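[RESIDUES AND BACKBONE]
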Amino acid sequence: RATQYTCMLLSYLIEHKADKEKLVMKLKQLESSMSSGRKMFRLGNMVHALVAARRTTQLPDVVPRFCLTASNLTRALYFICDAVLWLKSVGLQPDVDKPKWQNWATKCYYFSLLMNLARDWYEISWRLEHAVQEEKAKENSFWDKHSQELNYVKCNGLHGLLVLLGQTLKRHPPLLLDLVKNLCDLSGPLDTLGIYKTNPGVIGFCGVLSSLVGILTLASPHLKLKQ
């Protein structure tokens, strides 16, 4: 995935430079090969998504339970569409309506990301509320550093809220990384569905950043937001 989006980003950056036509063509061919390979590697992921959906239905908190279950179910639908597109690309199902299935796949992926972001916002809101409650519990400790920061936040409206948000995300790296990854992943479906048009450079950069976050959470599981 990181290779695919790196090729997309590099080909966008150098496509208008002289004497780079062959390199751009090779980068686009490699990007296409990576995309096809990823589709093949994802063939069994629909089972994983369904298993994850079954697990998240047992979460005690209603909001994460709904968001994550809906996300996993729509992600399973996305993988089904992706498998059909792979069958089309290798010639096993030549009669498949590719634009229609691509549109369905993109919509499923888009909705899955929205549900993930809703869960992230719920986690952020809960932690912000918890931080405010801590501030109230420490009203008698005026010189306490944490209390001073929150008092400052309380008196400065939107700026204070942003400061508190930054402090909250800084204290919870898994939540920050999950938020960054989901926001980056959103650039592709937003462009494909015509909701917010960008360019291959932006999509490539966001894809590379998202992939690096994914690699980081695989290498360090404690940085992955727990379900």
Q: What stands out?
A: The mean pLDDT is 87.
